[in-house]
C-alpha cells in the first residue's frame, strides 16, 4: 500500500502564527524615529514597553552607545574574517573582562543560537547521550538535532520532571559514556527556574550526568558581577557543567558567551566549534559596547542596577497579589505570565492592552501549549513604578472583559494551567441559548433524528453505532474498551443546530507518525505494550471516518452552539482524565478552522480520504469511461487480467472457522501497515460482524485450489453508503496476483450491484484508489493537549527516523 501523507509540524505552526498575525497581536512593527526603552510606538499608539528582555536597560546606556560609535569610527562596521585566523583589536579586552566575570575559561560566540550549534556537536561525543527538558529553548533543541546524524540518542523529558530524568539516566547508564541534560536557567515564557540544586545532587548520585544550561534570561540581573542565575545558585562552576550566558538581552550589547570550566574540553571547542571556525566574528561596535557593559558588571554599579530591578519586580508581584489575575509562576524573575487559556482570550486581551497603551507579548503555541496561551510581561529598569501601577490597573480591568468577550472563565483558566484561582470574576450567565442532549449510548438518542442528521455518513447510522458500542465494551484489554458520548444541541424552538459523538479510548501516540517512527516505537512496545500511548477523547472513533459533525451553518447561533459543545467536551475530558482531545475529519480550509484555533485547538494534517460517488454505470465499459485514459490502461493491464484468477464470493454470516481465517488475513495487513498505527482490533469485532445484517465479506479465493487470499470487510449503510472498512490479505500471493487491486475492483462492482450511491474507501493508498476513480479529499484534525511534550517528542522522532 502507498504511504500516508503526514503532517509537517512547521505547517501547523505556520497556521497558528498566521492566525495570531491576522488578529493583530504578532509581527508588529515599532514606529518613530527613536527608542528610549520606556516607551514604544505601535500602530500609532505610544505605549509603555513591557516586552523587552533588556531587563537592566543597558541597551540605552549612553556609555555603551558612545563605545559602539567610537568603535565604528576607528575599526569600521565589521571585521570580515574568521576569528580562527585573527580577531579584531577589541576582542582580547572583551574576553579578559568576561573571563573575570565568570572566573572561568570563556568563549565569545556570534549569538546563542550559533553558539549552541558550535558547542553541542563538539562537546557531545559519539558515545554520549542527550536528554532535553522539553521547554529548553528552541536554539538548544535545534542544535541537538545535529547529533542524531551521528547516531547519538537524543530524547525529551517533561519540564523539570526529575523522576523522569532519573529513570532515563538509569536506562542509559550502561549504554553510554556521558549523559548530558540540557535545560534553561530561567525559562523565557513563564519565568520559572531550573531546579539547579536538585540537578547537582542528581549528578553527584550519577557521575555520568553532565549539565548544560542556557542562562541567557538569567544573565546580568542576577549573580555576582551579573554572572547570572546559575552562578548565583552555584557560586562556583563544577567541571561537569557547560553554561551559556549572553552579551545581548540584559547585557545590552550583542553576542553570547560559553563558560567551560573543563580546560581540555574548552580547548577542543575553541579549536573546532563549527560556527566559531567558519562564521564571521562580532562587529567592532558590538564588542566595544560589550566592553563598556562588562566594565559596569565588574563594578559595584551592577548591584545598584540589580536592586533597582528587584524593587520593580517586587512591586509588580505585590500589586498582582491584590488581584485575581492568574499569575502562572510566582517567583523573583523579571518574566511574568498571565494565563488566558484560550487563544481567543489571549488575542482579545493583548489587543485590549495594546490599545490601552501598554506593549506586552502574546505567549502561544508552540512556545507554550495551545491551551496555555497567555500574556508574557517583562519588567525592566526602564519601567517607572507609576507605569507598573497603571499596567496592573489596565490588566485587571481588561482581563474580565476579555474573558467575557470570549465566553471564558477564570475557573477554566485555572484548570488549563492546573493552578488554584481565588474566585470566578465573571458572573455566571443566568440562562442558556440552547438545550443540550447528552447520552452515553445511541440507544438513548432519537433514532430518526440521529439518522437524519448524521446517519447518512459512513457507518454513523444508529445500527452502525449500536454495533460499535457492542464491539468496544466489556473486552479484556483496555485498548479495546471505549466510552461513547453523544451530543445534540438544539435552539429554544427545538431546531437541531449540531450533533456529534465522541469516544474516549487509548491511542498510540504515533498513530499518524511516519511508519519509520512507528516501527521504532513498536520495538519498545515489545517490552511495554502501552509505551507512548495516551487516553484520547476524539470526535468519532478509530473505526469510522468522514463527517462526524453535523452543524447548521445557516443558523445564527451555530458558532455559539459549537463553542458550547467545546466547553462540554472540555468538562468531559476533565472528568474522564484524557490527555488529548481531537476534533477530526474536517476538509482542508474548513471555515471552522479559525474558531477551533481560537478555542485552543491546533490544526494537524490527516491522511487523505478517498470517496467514489459516481456509480451511475451498468457495465464494465461504462465504468471505464468514468476513468482517465491512464487509469483505463492500468485497469486493462493490472486489474482485468487477474479477475479470472479468482473465485469471488459475497459472504454473509460466515462460520466461525472462516471468520478465524479472515481474522488472520486482517492481522497480516495490520502487521505490515504502520502508516496508520492503531491497536489491532480484537477477534470479537469480526465475530460480531458475522452475525450482523449490515456486514458482508467480499472473499477472493485463488484458483485452482480455492485458497482464500483476500477479504474485504464491508458495512452497508441503508442510506446508500458502502463502507469497505477493513481488509485482509495473504502476502504470499498479494503481489503476484494483484490481490489488493482486485479487492478494490470487486468492492466497486459490489456497491454498484447493490445500487449504492457512494463508497467510502477510507484512508491510505490514495494513489491506488485514485486509479479506480476515487476522489481524494484532503483532511485535517484539530487537537488540544495538556502540554506540548507528546507533539515535540514525536516531531523529534520524525526528524530522526524519516
Give me the oligomer status.
single chain
Shape: globular
Question: What count of domains describes the coordinates?
Answer: 4
Class by alpha and beta content: alpha+beta
Q: Which CATH class of the largest domain?
A: Alpha Beta
Indicate the CATH topology of the largest domain.
Aspartate Aminotransferase, domain 2
Supply the CATH superfamily name of the largest domain.
Type I PLP-dependent aspartate aminotransferase-like (Major domain)
The tally of helices reads 28
What order do the helices and strands come in, and which of them pair?
Blueprint: H1 9-22, E1 30-31, E2 39-42, E3 45-49, H2 62-75, H3 91-102, E4 106-109, H4 112-123, E5 129-133, H5 138-148, E6 154-157, H6 162-172, E7 179-184, H7 196-205, E8 209-214, H8 229-234, E9 241-246, E10 256-259, H9 263-271, H10 275-278, H11 284-297, H12 301-321, E11 335-341, H13 343-356, E12 358-359, E13 361-363, E14 373-378, H14 385-405, H15 410-417, E15 435-439, H16 447-453, H17 462-471, E16 483-490, E17 496-508, H18 515-525, E18 533-539, E19 549-551, H19 558-576, E20 580-587, H20 593-598, E21 602-605, E22 609-612, H21 620-625, H22 629-643, E23 646-651, H23 656-672, H24 683-690, E24 695-702, E25 707-717, E26 721-729, H25 731-734, H26 739-753, E27 758-763, H27 766-770, E28 775-777, E29 779-785, H28 789-801
Parallel strand pairs: 3-12, 5-6, 5-7, 7-8, 8-9, 18-20, 26-27
Antiparallel strand pairs: 1-2, 2-3, 4-10, 9-10, 11-14, 13-14, 15-16, 16-17, 17-18, 17-19, 20-29, 21-29, 22-27, 22-28, 23-24, 24-25, 25-26
Helix pairs in contact: 2-11, 3-11, 4-5, 12-14, 13-14, 17-24, 23-24
GO molecular function: transaminase activity
Cofactor: pyridoxal 5'-phosphate
InterPro entries: Acyl_CoA_acyltransferase, Aminotransferase_I/II_large, AON_synthase_class-II, BioF2-like_GNAT_dom, PyrdxlP-dep_Trfase, PyrdxlP-dep_Trfase_major, PyrdxlP-dep_Trfase_small
Amino acid at each position: 500500500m502507498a504511504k500516508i501523507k503526514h503532517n509537517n509540524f512547521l505547517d501547523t505552526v505556520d497556521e497558528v502564527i498566521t492566525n495570531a498575525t491576522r488578529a493583530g497581536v504578532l509581527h508588529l512593527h515599532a514606529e518613530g524615529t527613536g527608542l528610549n526603552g520606556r516607551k514604544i510606538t505601535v500602530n500609532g499608539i505610544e505605549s509603555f514597553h513591557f516586552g523587552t528582555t533588556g531587563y537592566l536597560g543597558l541597551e540605552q546606556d549612553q556609555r555603551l552607545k558612545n563605545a559602539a560609535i567610537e568603535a565604528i569610527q576607528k575599526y569600521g562596521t565589521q571585521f570580515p574574517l574568521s576569528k580562527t585566523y585573527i580577531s579584531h583589536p577589541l576582542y582580547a579586552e572583551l574576553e579578559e573582562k568576561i573571563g573575570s566575570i565568570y572566573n572561568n575559561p570563556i568563549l565569545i560566540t556570534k549569538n546563542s543560537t550559533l553558539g549552541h550549534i558550535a558547542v553541542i556537536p563538539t562537546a557531545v561525543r559519539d558515545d554520549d547521550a542527550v536528554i532535553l527538558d522539553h521547554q529548553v529553548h528552541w536554539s538548544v533543541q535545534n542544535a541537538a538535532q545535529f547529533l542524531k546524524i551521528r547516531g547519538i540518542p537524543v530524547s525529551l523529558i517533561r519540564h523539570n520532571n526529575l523522576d523522569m530524568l532519573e529513570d532515563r539516566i538509569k536506562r542509559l547508564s550502561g549504554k553510554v559514556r556521558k549523559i548530558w541534560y540540557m535545560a534553561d536557567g530561567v525559562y523565557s515564557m513563564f519565568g520559572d527556574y531550573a531546579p539547579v540544586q536538585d540537578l547537582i545532587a542528581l549528578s553527584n548520585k550519577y557521575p555520568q550526568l553532565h549539565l548544560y544550561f542556557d542562562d541567557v534570561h538569567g544573565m546580568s540581573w542576577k549573580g555576582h558581577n551579573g554572572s547570572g542565575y546559575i552562578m548565583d545558585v552555584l557560586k562556583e562552576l563544577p567541571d561537569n557543567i557547560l553554561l551559556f550566558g549572553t552579551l545581548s538581552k540584559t547585557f545590552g550589547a550583542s553576542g553570547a558567551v560559553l563558560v567551560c570550566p573543563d580546560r581540555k574540553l574548552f580547548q577542543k571547542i575553541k579549536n573546532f566549534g563549527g560556527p566559531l571556525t567558519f562564521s564571521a566574528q562580532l562587529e567592532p561596535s558590538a564588542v566595544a559596547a560589550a566592553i563598556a557593559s562588562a566594565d559596569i558588571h565588574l563594578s559595584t554599579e551592577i548591584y545598584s542596577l540589580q536592586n533597582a530591578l528587584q524593587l520593580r519586580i517586587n512591586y509588580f508581584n505585590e500589586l498582582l497579589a491584590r488581584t485575581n489575575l492568574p499569575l502562572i509562576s510566582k517567583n523573583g524573575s523579571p518574566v511574568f505570565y498571565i494565563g488566558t487559556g484560550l487563544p481567543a482570550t489571549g488575542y482579545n486581551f493583548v489587543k485590549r492592552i495594546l490599545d490601552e497603551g501598554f506593549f506586552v507579548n502574546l505567549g502561544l503555541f508552540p512556545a507554550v501549549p495551545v491551551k496555555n496561551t497567555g500574556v508574557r510581561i517583562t519588567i525592566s529598569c526602564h519601567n517607572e513604578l507609576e507605569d507598573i501601577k497603571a499596567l496592573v490597573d489596565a490588566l485587571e480591568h481588561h482581563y474580565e472583559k476579555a474573558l467575557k468577550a470570549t465566553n471564558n472563565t477564570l475557573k477554566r483558566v485555572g484548570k488549563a494551567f492546573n493552578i488554584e484561582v481565588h474566585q470566578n470574576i465573571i458572573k455566571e450567565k443566568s440562562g442558556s441559548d440552547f438545550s443540550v442532549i447528552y447520552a452515553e449510548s445511541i440507544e438513548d438518542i432519537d433514532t430518526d433524528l440521529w439518522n437524519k442528521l448524521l446517519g447518512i455518513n459512513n457507518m454513523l447510522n444508529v445500527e452502525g453505532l449500536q454495533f460499535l458500542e457492542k464491539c468496544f465494551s466489556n473486552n479484556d484489554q483496555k485498548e479495546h474498551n471505549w466510552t461513547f458520548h453523544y451530543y445534540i444541541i438544539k435552539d429554544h424552538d427545538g431546531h437541531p443546530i449540531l450533533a456529534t459523538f465522541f469516544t474516549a479510548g487509548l491511542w498510540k501516540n504515533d498513530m499518524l507518525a511516519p511508519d519509520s517512527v512507528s516501527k521504532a516505537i513498536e520495538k519498545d512496545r515489545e517490552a511495554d505494550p502501552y509505551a507512548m500511548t495516551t487516553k484520547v477523547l476524539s470526535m468519532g472513533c478509530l473505526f469510522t471516518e468522514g463527517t462526524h459533525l453535523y452543524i447548521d451553518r445557516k443558523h445564527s447561533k451555530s458558532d455559539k452552539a459549537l463553542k458550547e459543545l467545546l466547553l462540554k467536551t472540555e468538562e468531559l475530558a476533565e472528568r474522564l482524565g484524557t490527555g488529548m482531545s481531537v476534533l477530526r475529519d474536517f476538509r482542508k480550509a474548513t471555515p471552522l478552522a479559525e474558531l477551533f484555533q481560537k478555542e485552543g485547538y491546533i490544526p494537524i494534517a490527516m491522511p487523505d480520504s478517498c470517496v467514489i460517488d459516481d456509480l451511475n454505470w451498468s457495465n464494465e465499459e461504462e465504468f471505464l469511461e468514468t476513468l482517465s485514459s491512464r487509469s483505463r490502461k492500468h485497469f486493462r493491464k493490472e486489474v482485468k487480467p487477474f479477475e479470472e484468477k479468482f473465485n469471488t464470493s459475497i459472504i454473509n454470516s460466515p462460520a466461525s472457522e472462516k471468520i478465524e481465517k479472515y481474522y488472520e488475513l486482517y492481522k497480516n495487513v495490520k502487521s505490515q501497515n504502520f502508516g496508520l498505527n492503531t491497536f489491532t482490533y480484537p477477534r470479537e469485532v469480526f465475530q460480531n460482524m458475522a452475525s450482523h445484517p449490515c456486514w458482508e465479506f467480499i472473499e477472493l479465493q485463488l484458483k485452482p485450489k480455492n485458497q482464500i487470499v483476500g477479504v474485504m470487510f464491508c458495512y452497508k449503510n441503508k442510506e446508500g453508503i458502502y463502507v469497505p472498512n477493513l481488509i485482509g490479505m495473504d502476502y504470499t500471493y498479494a503481489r503476484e496476483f494483484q490481490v489488493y487491486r482486485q479487492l478494490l475492483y470487486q468492492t466497486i462492482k459490489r456497491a454498484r450491484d447493490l445500487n449504492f450511491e457512494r463508497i467510502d474507501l477510507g484512508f491510505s493508498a490514495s494513489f491506488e484508489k485514485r486509479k479506480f476513480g476515487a476522489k481524494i479529499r484532503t483532511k485535517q484534525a484539530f487537537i488540544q493537549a495538556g502540554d506540548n511534550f507528546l507533539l515535540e517528542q514525536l516531531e523529534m522522532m520524525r526528524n530522526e527516523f524519516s
